[in-house]
């Protein structure tokens, strides 16, 4: 069975054949480090981590995995300047009048930007910023009038106006920031934070990390060679790639990934960066389709020496140079988010193939799908911008990884409460299966070589084993089919469901060897996926912090087992002696004491109690959920009781009404009644129709019947 991967270059699944046997060369586009990593980053890097682990752990490939860090970029330059200028301003600002004037000027600056903004999300953000800053400014003005709490109001205004003030300060003084160290400290901070986030997600570190700032000399040499080949040109200190000339050559083709985007000026300008799309920059190109390899540095931008003067690398050239420096003229796999296809990856390939004069710099291009939040694009304006730390505060790293595994890596992925509930449920299913298997094994023969372990197979065991063999085949077929983890997890879920039914039916007489083999296979698979850390043979590792042992279960289970057996004997004696208080104390150990220690004890009929190590937080949540469910059940019971009482009261009240008074209260319907109280005229003075009279007569007779019964009952009670 051959492994096939979806190749974005051909837009189809292809048999994966590395250039050098079982060795894979792989380059992954890394982050631009200027802010906190978010779920969009997790979408790419956790997905690629899963692919990397499967290729290595399941298929046995050796991988050289290279990832870049973009630490020179228009976004970084602007953010670094703004942070520096704002911090300096906030530290030096003491005059309240000047602060008020500056904030007003920054609001005017924002208003002018809003007038020309066309991006709807950006416009919403600007409007919210305007409201927030205006409110803070008004608060300071009122505080000055009252002459009370000035220091707090000043700090509040500076905090609320940070983004607006920073942008205004940058527009006025950004060109005066020249120290390269200012531009280096910001990306270094966020690079470190990125690594922390990846570690928290259990994403394996790259084998090689390349930073743009460390490869500037190589970038210059790379560009020189492209110029020498006649495929790039210098203009006013910048260097541009000649797209038309490259595309006209027989052995080259531009925009291989997204040919339909050729000439997309909006995408091309976004690729050039916010600081590089001024009219003078755009006019110096031979064609709007050409893109920058080297940018001459303006005032307020970091710069490096080059044959064309002081400048800095373009965005696309960095990946070409750094990937080439480590992996050479052709690599097996290049990965990135789907949003990088054009222009970034198409420009990368064009530059690199121009440099090497070849036509296959990348063999397989793999792109992860988009990430949406509750069906919407992630955006700060929609208040659905979720950092990795935000996500980890809601769900565990394990749950997030299962969430990714439950979806195809190349398709759009929707992060939602429903999707995370599904992942949490899957994790719980896995954990309970492993705990049940461990309980089964713990209550069997103490030696794994004891003859009692090897039981004769019956029909049930044959069926379980057949399902196991089928599952392994399904998993292999799925992983060979573009590393389809979703189908793999579905197959494992079905297998576990079958095993659970078998265990519930046979209990402690289940075949321990067979179940252990299945559980070890599931464990190994989820170790490959990165869900289970460590080298446990079976299930999730237990927290061993402070116990000085690799496996806390081995240390505590004999003690817990002795406690559980003692408690069980006490319960038996207590039942015989009708010692209710002792039974309550035994329940308290099970329900309150042990859960606080991360231990679940399950009482079972005619069997030893089951003992399971479960995270304390989960057990406490289970207990709280149980309490809430019981309260809800009790409340529902009371509601139904009250409802029945109300119905009975209503029924009783109706019985007391004489039939002659039954309709007289309905004055909105009727205006005249006969001697028996049956309506004769409606509320408009018209005679009641014959059909309606018939219905009223039936109602009257029914009321006479129940009222007569009521009178008889009342008379009987009075006699007694």
Mean pLDDT: 92
Strand order of the largest sheet: 5-4-3-10-11
Biggest sheet features: 5 strands, parallel
The total count of helices amounts to: 23
Q: Which value, in Å, is the CA radius of gyration?
A: 37 Å
Form type: extended
Low-confidence stretches: 544-550
Would you count the extended β strands for me? Answer: 18
Helix and strand content put the structural class at alpha/beta
What distance separates the N and C termini?
Answer: 92 Å
| DSSP strand content | 5-15%
Fraction of residues in H or I helices:
55-70%
Q: Assembly type of the shown chains? A: single chain
Reconstruct the topology from this structure.
Blueprint lengths: L3 E4 L4 E4 L7 E6 L10 H20 L3 E8 L4 H19 L3 H21 L3 H27 L3 H11 L1 H12 L6 H21 L7 E4 L4 H13 L3 E4 L2 E4 L1 H6 L16 H8 L6 H5 L7 E6 L14 E3 L1 H13 L3 E7 L3 H16 L5 E7 L2 E3 L2 E2 L10 H7 L2 H9 L7 E3 L1 H26 L16 H22 L4 H22 L5 H17 L23 H25 L3 H14 L5 E4 L7 E4 L2 H40 L14 E4 L5 E4 L7 H30 L1
Helix pairs in contact: 2-6, 2-7, 3-4, 3-6, 4-5, 8-12, 12-13, 15-16, 16-18, 16-19, 17-18, 20-21
């Amino acid at each position: 069975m051959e492994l096939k991967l979806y190749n974005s270059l051909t837009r189809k699944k292809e048999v994966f054949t590395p250039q050098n046997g079982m060795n894979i060369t792989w380059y992954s586009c890394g982050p631009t480090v200027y802010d906190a990593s978010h779920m969009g980053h997790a979408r790419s890097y956790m997905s690629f981590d899963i692919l990397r682990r499967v290729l290595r752990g399941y298929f046995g490939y050796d991988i050289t995995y290279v990832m870049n860090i973009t630490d020179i970029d228009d976004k970084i330059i602007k953010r670094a300047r703004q942070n520096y200028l704002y911090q300096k301003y906030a530290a030096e600002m003491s005059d309240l009048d000047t602060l008020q004037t500056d904030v007003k000027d920054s609001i005017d600056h924002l208003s002018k930007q809003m007038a020309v903004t066309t991006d709807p999300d950006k416009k919403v953000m600007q409007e919210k910023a305007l409201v927030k800053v205006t409110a803070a400014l008004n608060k300071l003005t009122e505080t000055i009038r009252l002459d009370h709490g000035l220091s707090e109001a000043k700090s509040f205004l500076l905090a609320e106006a940070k983004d607006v003030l920073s942008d205004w300060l940058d527009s006025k003084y950004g060109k005066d920031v020249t120290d390269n160290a200012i531009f280096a400290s910001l990306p270094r901070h966020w690079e470190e934070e990125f690594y922390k986030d990846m570690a928290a997600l259990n994403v394996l570190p790259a084998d090689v990390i390349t930073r743009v700032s460390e490869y500037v000399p190589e970038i210059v040499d790379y560009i020189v060679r492209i110029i020498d080949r006649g495929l790039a040109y210098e203009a006013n200190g910048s260097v541009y790639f000649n797209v038309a000339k490259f595309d006209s050559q027989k052995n080259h083709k531009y925009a291989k990934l997204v040919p339909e985007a050729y000439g997309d000026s909006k995408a091309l300008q976004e690729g050039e960066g916010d600081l590089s799309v001024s009219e003078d920059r755009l006019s110096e190109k031979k064609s709007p389709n050409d893109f920058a390899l080297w940018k001459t540095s303006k005032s307020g931008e970091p710069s490096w020496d080059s044959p064309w003067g002081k400048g800095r690398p373009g965005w696309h050239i960095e990946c070409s140079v750094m990937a080439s420096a480590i992996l050479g003229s052709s690599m097996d796999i290049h990965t990135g988010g789907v949003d990088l296809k054009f222009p970034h990856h198409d420009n990368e390939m064009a530059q690199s193939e121009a440099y090497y004069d070849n036509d296959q710099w990348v063999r397989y291009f793999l792109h992860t799908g988009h990430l949406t939040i509750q069906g919407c694009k992630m955006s700060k304006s929609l208040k659905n911008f979720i950092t990795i730390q935000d996500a980890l505060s809601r769900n565990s790293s394990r749950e997030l990884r299962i969430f990714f595994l439950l979806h195809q890596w190349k398709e759009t992925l929707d992060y939602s409460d429903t999707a995370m509930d599904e992942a949490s449920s899957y994790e719980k299913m896995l954990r309970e299966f492993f705990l049940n298997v461990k309980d089964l094994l713990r209550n069997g023969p103490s030696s794994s070589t004891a003859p009692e372990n090897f039981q004769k197979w019956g029909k049930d065991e044959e069926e379980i084993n057949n399902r196991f063999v089928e599952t392994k085949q399904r998993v292999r077929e799925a992983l060979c089919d573009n590393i389809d983890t979703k189908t793999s997890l579905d197959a494992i879920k079905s297998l576990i469901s079958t095993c659970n039914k078998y265990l519930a039916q046979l209990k402690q007489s289940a075949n321990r060897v067979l179940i252990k083999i299945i559980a070890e296979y599931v464990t190994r698979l989820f170790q490959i996926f990165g869900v289970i850390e460590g080298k446990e043979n079976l299930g999730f590792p237990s927290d061993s912090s402070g116990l000085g042992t690799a496996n806390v279960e081995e240390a505590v289970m004999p003690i817990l087992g002795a406690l559980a057996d003692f408690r069980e004997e006490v319960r038996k004696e207590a039942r015989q002696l009708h010692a209710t208080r002792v039974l309550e104390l035994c329940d308290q150990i099970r329900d309150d004491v042990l859960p606080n220690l991360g231990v679940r004890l399950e009482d079972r009929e005619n069997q030893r109690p089951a003992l399971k190590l479960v995270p304390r937080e989960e057990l406490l949540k289970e207990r709280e959920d149980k309490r809430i469910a019981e309260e809800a059940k009790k409340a529902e019971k009371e509601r139904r009781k009250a409802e029945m009482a109300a119905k009975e009261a209503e029924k009783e009240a109706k019985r007391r009404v004489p039939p002659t008074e039954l309709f007289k209260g309905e004055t909105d319907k009727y205006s005249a009644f006969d001697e028996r109280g049956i309506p004769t005229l409606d509320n408009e003075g018209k005679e009641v129709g014959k059909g309606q009279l018939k219905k009223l007569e039936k109602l009257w007779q029914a009321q006479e019947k129940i009222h007569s019964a009521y009178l008889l009952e009342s008379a009987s009670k009075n006699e007694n």
